Structures are given as structure tokens and as C-alpha cells.
Amino acid sequence: MDPRTQSRFEARARILKAMAHPTRLLILDELSREARCVGHLQEIVGADVSTVSRHLAILSEAGLVTRSRRGNQVLCTLTVPCVMNFFSCIETVLQTAARQSIDLVG
Amino acid sequence: MDPRTQSRFEARARILKAMAHPTRLLILDELSREARCVGHLQEIVGADVSTVSRHLAILSEAGLVTRSRRGNQVLCTLTVPCVMNFFSCIETVLQTAARQSIDLVG
DNA sequence: TGCGTATTTGCCAAATTAGCCAAAATGCGT
DNA sequence: ACGCATTTTGGCTAATTTGGCAAATACGCA
Predict the structure, then answer these.
(1) Domain A3-80 - what CATH class?
(2) A87:B11 CB<8 A
(3) Residue A106: per-residue pLDDT
(4) Domain ranges of chain B
(5) Which nucleotides of D are covered by protein (CB under 7 A)?
(6) What's A80's DSSP letter?
(7) Å between A51 CA and nearest CA of chain B
(8) Which among A2, A15, A30 is the top mutation candidate for probing chain B, defined by the most B β-carbons within 10 Å of its own β-carbon?
(9) Distance between start and end Cα atoms, chain B
(10) Does the structural domain B3-81 have CATH classification 1.10.10.10?
């Protein structure tokens, strides 16, 4: 395969991989409404702060979230808001799957 | 956290996780153009057939691809074409990241 | 039934991921 | 400089993912 094509798919996969975790999706969802500091996100997520910090590092590395110091704390911002649009499509996938299950049963 | 919210994010994450692999993205990309059998996809991917079959199983389980027997072979179809739309947004993420790198250097 | 082609599954080793605790940073206020 | 609040990193373990080979399965055809 064309190595350029190869690396384009790898780049895309890296971003999807960064999103592909319930906690990280929750974080993205929250940040799509408003920029938040790590502590706030931790409350929502309900896991160890270190865990949340690691998730944020992953999102940051993928370019989805930007972290900036605000004195004592770190403010997290969604860099590319459009990522949330994808979920309307995702829902379609889920609904299609559900409908097919119903078809099988009925 | 609300368990209903929890499981909604888990469902979304499962789908993203299924997409989050270069080979599987390549397969989805190919299928977005035309339905293909496993052997054809294997040629494009260039990995062991068993590996491709496993990737297809993952995509199928996520509800992204449907597999149906056509005599000797298995035809793979993209169930929800809109998944490919996401990539325009992904490209935005990549470009934003690239632009920021340039800003840092320049 | 037996053969050849197409696809899936069992099994295994290597690599990656996720989560927590403890420890280190980072920055504010005194 | 010191204590306090906030965030990140080191180190560890358990679980998951990936990929290939070999074996099994599914199907069409003679």
C-alpha cells in the first residue's frame, strides 16, 4: 500500500483511538459545553485525579484538547468542536443495530 | 454518574474503538466506495486473511459492517455510510495540530 | 462423496492500555 | 521559604489488543 495513504490512516486512527474510551468521551462532551479545569472534570468522571489527568494527556496529545495553566489550575478546552457532530452518526449506527435485532426477534 | 449516561458513552466508545485502527479505517474507506468480499479486502490490506477476517468481525460486531454469504465468499457492506463524513472533521483536527506546530516553530 | 477455494476460529507471544497509589511538580498566598 | 491546593508522573499489575500460523469450517462443483 502507498505509504502516504498508510500514514494518513494511521493519523486518523490515532485520533479515533484517543476518543474511543467512555471516560474520554464524557470529558469531550463536557468540554463541548464549556472549558473546564481538571478538578471539575474529575468530579464528573468520578475516578482518581491521576487517571483523569492521564486521559487528558491522551486527548491533548491527539490534538483534541488544549491545556493551559490558569494559576493554580489547568484549564482544558476543546480544540475542534466539530468532533461532537459525529455522534449523530454514531447514534444512527446504534439505532440501525437495534432495529436489526428487533427484526431478528420479531 | 447516571448509569444511563454511562452506558450511552460506553456504546459510543465501542463504535469508535472498532474504527480506531488503521487497517479497519482502510477497510471502511474501501467499503464506502463499494461492497467487497474478504479476499478483495485482504489484497488491499496486505495482511494475513485471518487477520483481515478478525478486523471484519470487529467491524461487524460494532454494527458498522454487514457480512453476507455470496456462495463461496462473504460480501462485506458498510451499514452506515455516514461514518466516513467524520473524516472531514478529523482532518480539521490534524490541520489544527499542524498549524499549532508551525506557530511554535515560526 | 471428495476436492479446491474462501473464510473463520483456536492458540500463542508481544505490545499496549487502564487504573490506582505514592511521590514529584507547579503555582498561589503568607 | 513554607504550607496548601492542583495537577502530573513513576511504578506496578491486570486486562485487552494485535497478528500470524495452523486447523477447522462453509460452499460450489465434479
Answers:
(1) mainly alpha
(2) no
(3) 65
(4) 3-81
(5) 5-10, 17-23, 26-28
(6) -
(7) 16
(8) A15
(9) 44
(10) yes
State the pLDDT confidence band at B106, using cuts at 50, 70 and 90.
low
Strand D close to B58 by CB, under 7 A:
yes
Which residue's alpha carbon is at the shortest distance from the C1' of C26? A72
Retrieve residue A68's grid coordinates: 493551559
Continuous segment of H or E residues that includes residue B13? helix B3-19
Question: What does the alpha-carbon distance between residue B39 and residue B48 come to, in Å, rounded to a whole number?
Answer: 10
Give the gap in angstroms from C-alpha A80 to the nearest C-alpha of chain B: 6
What's the half-sphere exposure (Cβ side, CA atoms, 13 Å) at B94? 16
Give per-residue pLDDT as tens, A8-39.
Answer: 999 999 999 999 999 999 999 999 999 999 99
Closest residue (CA to C1') to nucleotide D4 in the complex: A72
Q: Give the tens place of pLDDT for each residue, B8-31.
A: 999 999 999 999 999 999 999 999
Each residue of A66-85: pLDDT tens digit? Answer: 999 999 999 999 998 888 88
Q: Provide the pairing of β-strand A65-70 with B73-78.
A: unpaired
Distance CA A90, CA A70 (A): 34
Distance to chain B for A75, nearest Cα, Å: 18
**CB pairs A-B closer than 8 Å:** 111
- Higher per-residue pLDDT: A53 or A96: A53
Q: Which residue of A has its CA nearest to B99?
A: A63
pLDDT value of residue A95: 84
